[in-house]
């Protein structure tokens, strides 16, 4: 997929943050992009590429949504970014409903979409990127965000499960998990940065100095374009994504 021109990509969770950056970058690279979000969103016309962005309003967590969108658009790439913003509070101030929100949203979306991608299946040579979180790599998890770290780790696991099932079925589909570190410009990153800075007794500015260079939606977009353009045989099962780009995980 070194040339993305004319290769339809579905970006799930494209209305804001990293998802918006990824959808915009793919369109600039020439891909026709189906931008899936729960609310109507407008996008600028691509400045340099030949791709266009077609918004689709849908609840990506509904069991029927993947079959409908994949069936109508026949994508060659699917990027799953959608998820819930975790409730930023310590364990004892969570309820089960707030603690489990990322299991009920992020994991549910990944499950339904990966299942449908295997059942359809996507055409040979297709690529699937599941955006998890760097929180899944922390030894202590993410103690101020309930079940978030565990849910994100599960997204990485089931991406690997999907790759195994694709190989067993002889499907030429490449599945990859991308785990972003702090992205303070996003709806998920901003409250997380504020909460962990306060817990450390630091200002947000001082806290972020330990995490530079910072990840932005634009960097995420350029990194996913790079990943989709790479030869499938060179793509690793998982990467961490930072302000310096993608870094392969063992």
TrEMBL record:
Family as reported in the entry's similarity comment: Belongs to the short-chain dehydrogenases/reductases (SDR) family.
Entry protein name: NAD(P)-dependent dehydrogenase (Short-subunit alcohol dehydrogenase family)
Signal peptide: none
PANTHER family: DEHYDROGENASE/REDUCTASE (SDR FAMILY) MEMBER 4, DEHYDROGENASE_REDUCTASE 4
SUPFAM superfamilies in the record: NAD(P)-binding Rossmann-fold domains (SSF51735)
